[in-house]
Amino acid sequence: MRVGDTHYRSIWFDEDAREVRIIDQRWLPHEFRVVALRARDDFTTAIRDMWVRGAPLIGATAAWGMAMDMRADASDANLERAARELLATRPTAVNLRWAIERMVNLLRPLPPARRWTAAKAEAQVICDEDVAINEAIGENGLQLIEAVAANKPAGEPVNILTHCNAGWLATVDWGTATAPIYKAHEKGIPVHVWVDETRPRNQGAHLTAWEMAAHGIPHHLVVDNAGGHLMQRGEVDMVIVGTDRTTACGDVANKIGTYLKALAAHDNDVPFYVALPSPTIDWTLCDGRDIPIEERGEDEVREVWGRMKDGAITRVTICPDETPAANPAFDVTPAKYVTGLITERGVCAASGEGLRELFPERAE
């Protein structure tokens, strides 16, 4: 996607500097910063502290972390250590495990002298695959938006509600939930996006709103609890969200608050879609209750940050100093509340049968 007149991916390898570069998302929407990642600690910090976030981008970052570590030390011991430390950064997004296992399976049989070159090439392939997958998700989701648009008065926009940020900033490019929106906008279909703020880190307010504004897509920022009200009033035509892990039976783990949107959508007969690249499917799990839910630090709940009127970016505390906070980062939406899963291979029912129909190689 573009930032101003420049095309960016969210992560890339700079051949001249011989370093990986990312968009440091902590500073958006107020500042656009690009930072370099060179050593393993850079990558683990970037994933754990959410300089990068979003399941596909986490996986891509881990792949580059493995690659850069092989450049520094390609020994067997360091290969295992790098995989272990990167895997420990965040527990919920299955793409992290998928990318690390893919890198380890490629590199372990190779002699150390060949590992850096092979790892660099594979990390780039993972990034390129992610872009292609997400663009295909966009094409498949576009058909759903077109079907809604066909039943609306001419010129009236399709109103889409999102939660968290499943945009190009959460992937290498295009995004998952936003890819169909970008495709519809490019095709001239009127769309309007209700952007959930997505407490506690406000990824909707900070990131999705920034993406929508940058691409000229009509949108409004709303508080997280407004979704049900908008659905009751007939002001939401469809919900599209992303996912950090989807079970083989169609249960979906996504940013905390997604489950409540699914319940409201179900009660108001609003289609609720989940856009997911296939690496986000955990074929080893069926019951969403078995997905590990990340518990993050309480300061994310107790504090908010933003830009002051004088331009300074700062954090402020919003509760009594002595009040503790709990911070589960994700919740699980049971498959029965999901209208359909939008994948790179098409749209399917949120069920084991639906997923296996699109991915028959997994029918075991």
Shape: globular
User: Can you tell me the CATH architecture of the largest domain?
Assistant: 3-Layer(aba) Sandwich
Q: What is the rounded Rg?
A: 20 Å
What level of helicity do the residues show? 25-40%
Top-tier CATH class of the largest domain: Alpha Beta
Largest sheet: number of strands, sense, barrel closure = 7 strands, mixed
Determine the strand fraction and express it as a percent band: 15-25%
Describe this protein's structure.
With 364 residues, the protein is an alpha/beta fold. It has two domains: 2-129, Up-down Bundle (Four Helix Bundle (Hemerythrin (Met), subunit A)), CATH 1.20.120.420; 135-362, Translation initiation factor eif-2b, domain 2 (Rossmann fold, 3-Layer(aba) Sandwich), CATH 3.40.50.10470. The chain has eleven helices and 18 strands. The protein has helices at 40-48, 55-72, 76-87, 94-107, 112-150, 179-186, 203-214, 227-232, 258-267, 299-302, 352-358; strands at 2-3, 6-7, 11-14, 19-23, 34-37, 158-162, 191-196, 219-222, 238-241, 245-247, 252-255, 272-275, 281-282, 303-307, 313-317, 330-333, 340-343, 346-348. The mean pLDDT is 96.
